[in-house]
Design a protein that fits this description.
The structure is a single chain. It is built from 4 helices and 7 strands, in the order E-H-H-E-E-E-E-E-E-H-H. It is α+β, with helices and mostly antiparallel strands. It has a 7-stranded antiparallel sheet with strand order 1-7-6-5-4-3-2, covered by helices on one side. The chain starts with 17 loop residues before the first strand and ends with a helix.
Length: about 170
Amino acid sequence: MMNEIIWPEGYLPGLTDNFASNEIIVADLTAAEVWEYLNNTSKWESYYSNVADIRFLNGSGPELHQGARFRFNTFGFPIEAEVLEHEPAADGKPARLAWHGWEEHSTDADALHVHHAWLIEDLPGGRVRILTQETQNGKDAREMAAAKPNPMINGHQDWIEGLAGAAKQARA
């Protein structure tokens, strides 16, 4: 049985303004190899073109950890985020990473708020599953949900494919 994302109150898919889900299963990789390229934010820009200007706000970084506060630009938005879930893969359990993000410096009650979660798990046969899902609330979330093609689906697909590609390239 495959694992699933753990959703906090107010961010359950289907009950938010926008939801994106992307998943790939790749042979000849491990969750630990993929985790290295997701957990270390200094590597993001090398394989994902939709992220820039990553900075940590509480003196930590570039690796993420429970409670880490960081900011970055993505999809045209300056996002501030806090890591709420951070579990590297271990003892047959999947790696889990999730952050709550919000539009930096926005005081608008209808500002963008997101929960972006990752699950990376080893599968039988030397395969790894990379799942990323994001729920969003706010005016900009509603606009992105209506856009065709969907920028979240396409952007996150680029992210997970780049993530797997970077991990595979490092293995070669």
